[in-house]
Amino acid sequence: MIPSTEYQARRASLFSAMAEDSFAVIFSGVAKKCSADENYPFEVNRNFYYLTGINQEDSALLLIKCDGEEREYLLISPFDPVKEKWYGKRLTPAEATTISGIRNVLLNSALSSRVETIITGSYSDFPAINTLYLDLEKEQKVAEDTDIEDYRRSLELLSSNLNVVDAYPLICKLRMVKSENEVNEFRAAVEATKIGIASAMAKIRPGVYEYEVADEFHRVINDYSGYQGTSFPTILASGVNSTCLHYPTPLAKINAGDVVLMDLGSRNGFYCADVSRTVPADGVFSDLQRTIYSIVLGANKAVANFARPGRTIKELQNFTIEYLAAECLSKRLIQDKSEISNYYFHGVSHFIGLDTHDVGDRNLPLVAGNIISDEPGLYFKELGIGVRIEDDLLITEDGCEVLTKDIIKEIEDIEAFYKHRI
Question: Which one, of 224, 166, 168, lies nearest residue 195 by Cα?
Fold first, then answer.
């Protein structure tokens, strides 16, 4: 669990990045419409959550930096006994303060007038402030009928001098480097994922449907994590389906001779584990499956050895392409190195954190505290064999730590698992 002191420190870092005589408004967001009178499940704006720890819609963070002072306000929904009968309990101001460390908690109905007085200079404590930071992430909704661009335009009507600055890159830069508390949240997500993968692997055998394996993973990780859910929609693909990168419909029956590719993860405090493993439906790899798997496993280990501060994700990608091409050529799976793009066609790495594909500039050198994926793969559709092995790496001062190292991936360990399966 992230303590309120850490949220306070994050806001202090954002204040430091803001210009003097400026203010910021960051929204939690609202649920988007799905169909008719149904909404998609609410997902809090991760930048708002990163700064406050508050997971509640219709909330906002207001930061004011002026005349050498820094003031912060949290605005939340009022208590409504009728709504609570329908939608459940809302945070009280005291509870919001305990989580976020923000003492000034107001009702969200006060935001509009407070922002207007800041812009126009009628706020008694400060002169007019013309620099506003907004999180301008695309398609972000701030109210039922208002997105962030609508909100921006409405404020620009209040003052022709208003300078709107995108706060998104400032917050993203902070999010790229994980604290010890964040890493601990991530470790818990990995532990739940490990337990879920073991149970899912035990379910795999010819005649079982892909969705039965996915359902087993979901059941186990939710039992373990207290119903925190998956990091992303689980990919569970057998046979030729394993050659589709984001296979969306796990409806096929697993057949004898198939490999089964699992790309899945559990969340903990919104921190997302992201792991891929590939196993044989029969419990034993065929010679061809073993050859392809060994190449991917070798690449996976080589990337982990290569990753360190100063390297970029682009460099990791180029390293992976060279490795896979050379190995596939030596095993006569391809005739020329240029053919590798037919069988490996995605990136080897991305940042991981509060989002599975987390914020971060992939062209910047890695630094200690980054968490990234390590996910080489090979996909031979004509052979019906797709293999991806994905680990999560914590960049350290002199290399990296494989956070998912305890989730089995060696051929002998996988085959021993199935040999001794009950």
Answer: 224
Neighbours of 261 (CB within 10 A): 28
| Phi then psi dihedrals of residue 254, to 5 deg | -75, 130
* pLDDT tens digits, one per residue of 320-342: 999 999 999 999 999 999 999 99
Contact partners, residue 313, CB within 8 Å, separation at least 6: 347, 348, 349, 350, 362, 363, 366, 372
Q: Alpha helices of 249-344 — where are they, by DSSP H?
A: 287-306, 313-330
4-175 CATH choice from 3.40.640.10, 3.40.50.12780, 3.30.530.20, 3.40.350.10: 3.40.350.10
Q: From CA 393, how far away is CA 387, in angstroms rounded?
A: 19
Amino acid at the residue 400: C
* Per-residue pLDDT tens over the stretch 197-256: 999 999 999 999 999 999 999 999 999 999 999 999 999 999 999 999 999 999 999 999
Q: Which CATH architecture has domain 177-419?
A: Alpha-Beta Complex (3.90)
DSSP string, 54-79: ---SS-EEEEEEETTEEEEEEEEPPP
pTM for this model (two decimals)? 0.95
Alpha carbon distance 389, 147 (integer Å): 39
Strand partners, 277: 262
> Which sign, positive or negative, has the C-alpha torsion 197, 386, 274, 310?
positive
- The 8-class DSSP code of residue 35 comes to E
Domain ranges of the chain: 4-175, 177-419
What span, in angstroms and rounded, lies between the C-alpha atoms of 302 and 318? 12
